[in-house]
């Protein structure tokens, strides 16, 4: 949905973009890891937003995600993290600027299977909101009680027409969900009523 929305936005602005770079957190927890805390690493993929076929676009994204997850160097921050923590702030900022080439950052946060209650009142909706760590857009999908909520935080210098962006993202999600529904439709078997043969009819 995000890829389709960004394609529509750039088309409306008259700007041709083939791909955007997206960072996504990936769970790297293994059997035997402590139960507490988070175990994730950042994967980066090129999202082919120029591809207009939603089914093919999702297939390409899936292939690229699998390649990113299988990358042996994915959890490298576990090794260099202690060293990076000892660097002075100016050095860290220099390193961040040197390696930063991410356009979009996305995250998926799974919630509870049932709607929670707060102080005796049922929580009806969630509004996910993430930081903007030097990227043009941060988008978060939060799932709760069979509902999904999407929050978008973006740089207004990069996306200077908020109403257009909102409309394009909505159309992008509609396009992707419609394609997904088509893919999951059960096959309809045609039934033909048996016709008596000419021999049976004579009898």
How does this structure look, described?
By secondary structure, the chain is an alpha/beta fold. It is built from six helices and seven strands, in the order H-E-E-H-H-H-E-E-E-E-E-H-H. The protein has helices at residues 2-12, 54-69, 77-85, 89-99, 162-183, 198-202, and strands spanning 20-27, 40-47, 104-110, 117-118, 121-122, 137-144, 147-154. The strands form two sheets. A five-stranded mixed β-sheet has the order 2-1-3-6-7, covered by helices on one side. Helix 1 packs across helix 5. The radius of gyration is 24 Å and the shape is globular. The N and C termini lie far apart (63 Å). 14% of the residues are buried. Mean pLDDT is 78; it is low at 196-203.
Spatial extent as radius of gyration: 24 Å
**Uncertain segments of ≥5 residues (pLDDT<50)?**
196-203
Biggest sheet features: 5 strands, mixed
Number of strands: 7
N/C terminus separation: 63 Å
Secondary structural class = alpha/beta
Shape, per Cα inertia axes: globular
Tags for this model:
alpha/beta, two-stranded antiparallel ribbon, 6 helices, five-stranded mixed beta sheet, 203 residues, disordered C terminus
């Amino acid at each position: 949905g995000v890829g389709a929305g960004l394609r529509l936005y750039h088309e409306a602005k008259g700007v041709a973009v083939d791909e955007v770079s997206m960072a996504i957190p990936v769970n790297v927890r293994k059997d035997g890891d402590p139960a507490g805390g988070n175990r994730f690493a950042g994967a980066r993929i090129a999202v082919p937003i120029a591809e207009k076929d939603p089914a093919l676009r999702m297939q390409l994204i899936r292939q690229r995600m699998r390649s990113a997850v299988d990358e042996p160097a994915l959890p490298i921050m576990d090794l260099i993290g202690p060293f990076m923590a000892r660097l002075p702030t100016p050095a860290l900022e220099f390193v961040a600027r040197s390696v930063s080439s991410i356009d979009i950052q996305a995250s998926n946060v799974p919630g509870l299977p049932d709607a929670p209650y707060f102080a005796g009142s049922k929580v009806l909706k969630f509004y996910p909101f993430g930081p903007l760590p030097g990227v043009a857009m941060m988008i978060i999908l939060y799932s709760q009680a069979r509902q999904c909520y999407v929050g978008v935080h973006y740089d207004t210098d990069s996306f200077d027409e908020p109403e257009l962006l909102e409309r394009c993202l909505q159309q992008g999600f509609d396009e992707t969900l419609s394609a997904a529904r088509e893919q999951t439709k059960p096959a309809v078997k045609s039934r033909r009523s048996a016709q008596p043969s000419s021999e049976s009819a004579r009898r």
